[in-house]
Design brief:
Layout: E1 3-6, H1 16-19, H2 23-27, E2 36-40, H3 42-50, E3 55-61, H4 69-75, E4 79-83, H5 85-88, E5 100-105, H6 112-115, E6 121-126, H7 131-143, E7 148-151, H8 161-167, E8 176-178, H9 188-196, E9 200-204, E10 211-212, H10 216-220, E11 224-229, H11 237-241, E12 245-248, H12 260-271
Parallel strand pairs: 1-4, 3-4, 6-7, 6-11, 7-8, 9-11, 9-12, 10-12
Antiparallel strand pairs: 2-5, 3-5
Helix pairs in contact: 7-8, 7-12
Length: about 280
């Protein structure tokens, strides 16, 4: 049974996880086993619970108590901090959360090889820094049949609060792992690992020699890893050079490219090979 705690002052030390800790402090790189993240809204929290993640505490508007009985019962014996909306609106961004926040423990990080053991189609995110884009790519990956997502060591954390929110909780549904520990592990070592796992690698990049994303050679690949580059600069020359193919999405009206989140949706649709389902 949860422990109800009334909040009258957001400066209370026990609320630091919601009010004062930065994303880096929540992640706690020195002690990963103590790392936390914040999930927003009953739907997103529910997806996290479905994935077996452990809640630490809840913060919600008082009127939500009667509306979230199922969620409260699923979270078990944890503190539930509650306050009137006027108090909680002092918390930046609270109006976007559908009135419920949950602090949860970060899961133990899996290996790329482990989550890709049976995968046919995966996405590799190289240095994306905008959590909104990362969340949107995960949502596309979940909806368009990607089996896993791998991220480079310099990519934004998929458990960043905004990435989790934008993904609508799909970061808990699509397996993901970091491909390396430091920036030096990418791209050469990371691409070598992908090739060792049997993946054909395709770099989504602007290049006059690129083949179309609908090229039948991509469809025929038993295992395909699609690389998506950072906002602005795209993939590095080394990453493009290390891939088996460079691919592009054909464009019209003089437009050269799409935002990485939009491009991911188009590309995932093309390479999934399951469009008749």
């Amino acid at each position: 049974m949860y422990t109800l705690m009334e909040v009258h002052d957001l400066s209370a030390p026990e609320l630091a996880v919601y009010t004062r800790l930065t994303e880096a402090q929540l992640r706690n790189r020195r002690h990963p086993e103590q790392g936390l993240f914040i999930a927003e809204s009953p739907k997103v929290i529910g997806h996290a619970l479905d994935a077996g993640l452990e809640p630490v505490s809840l913060l919600m508007e008082r009127r939500q108590m009667a509306l979230q009985t199922e969620l409260l019962s699923r979270c078990g014996d944890i503190p539930v901090y509650t306050a009137e909306r006027a108090v909680l609106e002092q918390l930046t961004g609270f109006a976007l959360t559908r009135s419920v926040l949950c602090a949860m423990r970060r899961p133990s990080p899996p290996t790329a090889e482990g989550i890709c053991a049976g995968a046919r189609r995966i996405a590799v995110l190289d240095g994306l820094v905008d959590p909104t884009n990362v969340g949107a790519v995960f949502r596309s990956a979940a909806g368009l049949n990607m089996d896993a997502v791998l991220i480079s060591p310099t990519c934004c954390d998929p458990l960043h609060r905004r990435a989790v929110r934008v993904s609508m909780g799909t970061v808990f549904q699509v397996p993901w792992a970091v491909l390396g520990q430091t920036a030096a592990d990418w791209p050469n070592q990371g691409l070598a690992r992908l090739h060792a796992m049997g993946f054909v690698t395709a770099a989504l990049a602007l290049d006059s020699r690129a083949i179309s994303i609908s090229d039948p050679r991509l469809q025929a690949a038993p295992r395909l890893a699609l690389l998506l580059g950072t906002e602005g600069d795209g993939l590095s020359p080394a990453a493009v050079a290390g891939c088996d193919y460079t691919v592009r999405i054909p464009m019209s009206h003089g437009v050269d490219s799409l935002n990485v989140a939009a491009a991911s949706a188009v590309a995932f649709w093309e390479i999934s090979g399951r469009r008749s389902e």
